[in-house]
Design brief:
This protein is 7% helix and 40% strand. With 701 residues, it is mostly beta strands.
């Protein structure tokens, strides 16, 4: 039974400019060659050169459909003659009328035309550089639907729902020659790389722009039923494995029982709207965790024998043309088969580089050389941020109170962005790597990387960050915060809020390009964020958004006290913070700042001494320190802290002594309080709307 497409709404989309590829010795990209492979011969155009010239990726024409094959360069030779001209050959002229070339149209996108010249070489020409006559010709030729997920039913309007088809598997639109049986090669031991020790440096004034080499801006919302999923089977999110965005891959795996473990690999042809199983691995379960669209190389994570954590990783190649193979694997903790962990960050970059985090360590691996480039200890639950093109890696340094900027390929620290005391944060580079955003708790800051200057600060009355996680930019105008809000950088305002399944940002490979992968049962899809309503909300005129702004008056009320925090001390700290933020203190102001110290309920804590059985109990009554800014019945801004017992206790003191020492207010809530320069009205603090994001698309709530 053929698969059904649920909600395709992708705008017209074709190949963009070819990637800059590795220099070659004997062949160059665009060369027309003949080759022999598997006992047969063929002819095509070189589209990539790998392994220092050892391998060629050749684009061939199979009955009008383009596909790619990898062959040894030694088995290829330049075509003896150029292809004969045919009816599609025509003369192309540039806009100035000064230059012309005889060529045939291969394909076109919204901005680029791909032409094959008489000698077989392929060139990419911006459409705006062509003559008006040639542009008219291209418009007439634009009759086929080139959408990556073309076909099926159209996507319903936002707010309505659609469901994946309940049919079984997907009938392929083309054959890959059966389902390949994947073998898992023996794990290699990666040589140790450089251990990076972070130092405090000046900001990297010479940082260069580093943008993504891929253009997926035209990719929109689509979903596709891939296969039937049985009980205790898991479908992974889809990953783009083709440079034009039309080829994706995903896995169906079973990891519940060692005896029944398997993984099925599916190739998704977005142009035809079809999916086909192309490979299977029995006895091991793994999922695709990241992929480089330019090469189709993917990072895979193997499930451990038991539990939900992982014990090994690997690299899969050949996903673009539906011929996957596991090229290499490595153990996360060599020599300790029982140790496992979550892979908290995963990213495959151009050039054969993978960036992963496990065992509280950032690891940058050159999988083509099978070596570790560099490692860096990472505290808390923090994850690195990697620029869109992969050139730079940002590391949160909680000890040095900085964001260290490191060259990914070499492990050389080139500068630091001072950020003050931080704990568990989320970070993200802007699309050009010139700015970096950092969120912690309910606060977001945006820094200029080259100078360290704080360009924007936003403090909300709602949580904006989680433990670690990514902080993706949508263009230069929006941030998607880890908890779901969309922050407009132009207005310094939360304009929308998304509710998403699972941990979408953590596991989304192209989330920094606005592409959110979704999965439900046996169906997968992609959702484009932010959607139109969220973008329009950023320009919404609503009058005065602020409830309190600099220059306004605030009245102070203090109730309660505790050890180290008298009423007068608390008032003094609070009034100083109000004036520092640009407000005035006035007893009759309509805006009130209420500071309080109260006692919580007495609780009993149990401790176990190392080496001994049994536990010792101790009673503890916490102090609760709290600050609220209110107008009438609306609480506009709040901060609180609850004292607690330490998780571990050491020394000669008894548990009762330790309990009494910790039964005191956290004075930092008052003494170190930083009020925002303006506090929004309650109705604007969570944005202008909410949406649910799922396999059904975006549904406004």
């Amino acid at each position: 039974m053929s698969p059904s497409i649920c909600g395709c709404r992708l705008t017209a989309f074709l190949l963009t400019a070819l990637m800059t590829l590795t220099p070659v010795l004997a062949f160059e990209v665009g060369d027309r060659v003949t080759f022999s492979r598997a006992g047969s011969s063929g002819e095509g155009v070189v589209s990539d050169v790998r392994g220092g010239g050892k391998f060629l990726v050749i684009e061939v024409d199979n009955g009008g459909r383009k596909s790619k094959v990898v062959v040894l360069a030694s088995q290829a030779k330049a075509s003896a003659s150029a292809p004969a001209a045919d009816d599609s050959m025509r003369m192309w002229t540039d806009a100035s009328g000064s230059f012309s070339v005889k060529a045939t149209l291969v394909e076109q996108s919204a901005t680029m035309a791909t032409l094959r010249k008489e000698d077989g070489r392929v060139i990419n020409v911006p459409i705006e550089k062509l003559s008006i006559g040639d542009q008219e010709y291209l418009a007439l030729m634009d009759t086929a639907d080139p959408n990556p997920f073309a076909g099926g039913t159209s996507m319903p309007a936002t707010g309505s729902s659609f469901a994946p088809s309940s049919n079984g598997g997907a009938s392929p639109s083309r054959s890959f020659g059966g389902v390949a049986q994947l073998s898992v090669p023996q794990a290699v031991k990666l040589p140790e790389g450089k251990k990076l020790l972070l130092t405090n440096m000046s900001p990297p004034a010479s940082i260069q722009a580093d943008t993504t080499p891929y253009d997926f801006s035209a990719l929109g919302n689509a979903a596709l039923n891939v296969t039937k999923k049985e009980f205790r089977e898991d479908m992974t999110r889809p990953f783009i494995v083709g440079s034009d965005g039309s080829t994706l891959a995903c896995c169906l795996k079973s990891s519940w029982s060692n005896n029944d473990k398997f993984t099925k690999v599916f190739h998704i042809d977005g142009r035809r709207g079809s999916a086909q199983q192309v490979a299977e691995c029995t006895g091991r379960s793994f999922g695709i965790a990241s992929a480089d669209p330019g090469t189709g190389d993917a990072l895979i994570i193997f499930d451990a024998a038991q539990g939900t954590q992982s014990s090994g990783l690997g690299i899969m190649t050949g996903l673009t043309d539906g011929s996957p193979r596991i090229a290499m694997t490595w153990d996360m903790f060599p020599g300790d088969s029982n140790k496992k962990d979550y892979v908290r960050y995963r990213r495959v970059l151009p050039g054969g580089i993978a960036v992963v985090v496990y065992g509280q360590t950032i690891r940058v691996i050159n999988y083509r050389n099978r070596s570790t480039v560099w490692t860096c200890a990472q505290t808390m639950f923090n994850e690195p941020a990697v620029s869109a093109g992969g050139r730079y890696t940002a590391v949160a340094d909680t000890t040095g109170e900085q964001i260290a900027i490191v060259e990914t390929a070499t492990g050389q620290q080139i500068g630091s962005v001072p950020c003050g005391k931080i704990g568990s944060v989320s970070m993200g580079f802007s699309p050009d790597a010139k700015r970096i955003a950092l969120s912690e708790g309910n606060k977001v800051r945006v820094f200029e990387v080259a100078t360290g200057e704080v360009l924007l600060e936003h403090e909300a009355n709602v949580p904006l960050s989680k433990h670690g996680g990514q902080l993706p930019w949508y263009g230069q105008s929006f941030l998607l915060l880890p908890t779901g809000p969309v922050l407009s950088l132009k207005r310094n305002l939360i304009v929308w809020n998304y509710q998403m399944q699972g941990e979408p940002i953590e596991y989304a490979d192209r989330i920094f390009e606005g592409l959110y992968p979704v999965v439900n049962d046996g169906s997968v899809g992609i959702v484009r964020l932010p959607h139109e309503k969220a973008i329009e909300a950023a320009d919404r005129e609503v009058g005065d958004l602020a409830a309190v702004s600099q220059g306004d008056s605030i009245a102070v009320n203090v109730t309660g006290s505790g050890p180290g925090a008298t009423t007068n001390q608390i008032r003094s700290w609070i009034e100083a913070a109000i004036e520092k933020a640009g407000y005035r203190v006035a007893s009759d102001a309509p805006t009130k700042l209420n500071a309080s110290v109260t006692r919580g309920k007495t609780e009993e804590r149990s401790y176990r001494e190392f080496g001994n059985f049994g536990t010792t109990e101790v009673k503890f009554t916490p102090y609760i320190s709290k600050v609220d800014v209110v107008q009438g019945s609306d609480t506009l801004w709040t901060r609180s802290s609850r004292s607690s017992m330490p998780f571990f206790v050491r020394g000669d003191k008894t548990l009762k002594q330790i309990a009494r020492e910790n039964e005191k207010p956290n004075t930092g809530v008052f003494e170190n309080m930083e009020l925002p320069e303006q506090i929004l009205k309650l109705e604007y603090q969570k944005g202008f709307g909410n949406s649910m994001v799922s396999i059904q698309g975006i549904r406004d709530m």
